[in-house]
Amino acid sequence: MTDSPFGRVAAAMITPFTSEGELDLPGARRLAAHLVDRGGCDALVLNGTTGESPTTSDEEKTALVRAVAEEVGGRARIVAGVGTGDTRHSVELARAAARAGAHGLLVVTPYYSRPGQEAVARHLATVADATDLPVMLYDIPARTGEGTALTAGTLERLAEHPRILAVKDCAYDLLKTAKVLAATGLAYYSGCDELNLPLRAIGARGCVSTVANVAGPAVRGVLDAFDAGDHAGAARRHRALIPLIDAMMSDVPGTVAVKALFAAAGLPGGPPRPPLLPAGEALTLRLADALRKAVG
């Protein structure tokens, strides 16, 4: 385990459901152990977008954190997504996650109501004040709106908070990322698999990866090669993953792709909850083919 409170290769873990759509806690335990013990992951991010957080209840979110922390919390970092569009609700989720055994929190910028930078900063600092856990900010303008994209100035200000230690970067703004890396001690994590190597090359600490659900050792191999000084090998490994990343992320949400591949492999997952629809046969075959070519 790394000395980072957020690990180095974190799977953005799906939330397993039964065939009837209920939370599958035994499946979550089995899946967590698989990702940590055989999947190359030293951290798991729960209740994020890939974990279908918009469709799980607060009680389900807390139960999932507790079950996974009990199963693998001694050998991997457990990071709980607690971001909502409501500051009070996010504070409640943060405190519940802390009680359930989370090691850290992932907090997305508020969405839909389009608060300005001052309001966003206060929201994130308030959630960070709610517990003693370290916080990873989630910068993803494509889902929260350009109006709530964290500016470099806001990130530099939030970096002064003693518990705000990291950023999950899905902003697709390398200039902003480089500025913040140069000006702060924030640990950056790529949140988009196609940027794992480019962001590591400019100083990111690791990744929060959807693809790591199904190809964790290969995702980790890219970073391992780069850190060992084999930059050509890292680039070759990264390029080999691009067709899989494309297949998993371009046509359907990553959740749908992961659950289709898990179903084919006999791993826990179950169907996604509506409004998401499960992958059809043709897509599942295309995903399986891309995975087979990527990992051999």
Automatic annotation (TrEMBL):
Query: Which SUPFAM superfamilies does the record cross-reference, listed alphabetically?
Result: Aldolase
Site annotation Part of a proton relay during catalysis: residues: 49, 112
Protein origin, superkingdom: Bacteria
List the catalytic residues: 138, 168
Tell me where in or outside the cell this protein is found. Cytoplasm
For this protein, what reaction is catalysed? L-aspartate 4-semialdehyde + pyruvate = (2S,4S)-4-hydroxy-2,3,4,5-tetrahydrodipicolinate + H2O + H(+)
Q: Where does pyruvate bind?
A: 50, 208
Pathway note: Amino-acid biosynthesis; L-lysine biosynthesis via DAP pathway; (S)-tetrahydrodipicolinate from L-aspartate: step 3/4
Q: Which SMART domains match?
A: DHDPS
Q: Please provide the record's keywords in A-Z order.
A: Amino-acid biosynthesis, Cytoplasm, Diaminopimelate biosynthesis, Lyase, Lysine biosynthesis, Schiff base
Q: Name one Pfam family in it.
A: DHDPS
Q: What is its EC number?
A: 4.3.3.7
Q: Which family does it belong to?
A: Belongs to the DapA family.
HAMAP family in the cross-refs: DapA
- Subunit annotation: Homotetramer; dimer of dimers.
Q: What does this protein do?
A: Catalyzes the condensation of (S)-aspartate-beta-semialdehyde [(S)-ASA] and pyruvate to 4-hydroxy-tetrahydrodipicolinate (HTPA).
Question: Record's NCBIfam families?
Answer: dapA (TIGR00674)
**Protein name per Swiss-Prot or TrEMBL:** 4-hydroxy-tetrahydrodipicolinate synthase
- Record lineage: Bacteria, Bacillati, Actinomycetota, Actinomycetes, Kitasatosporales
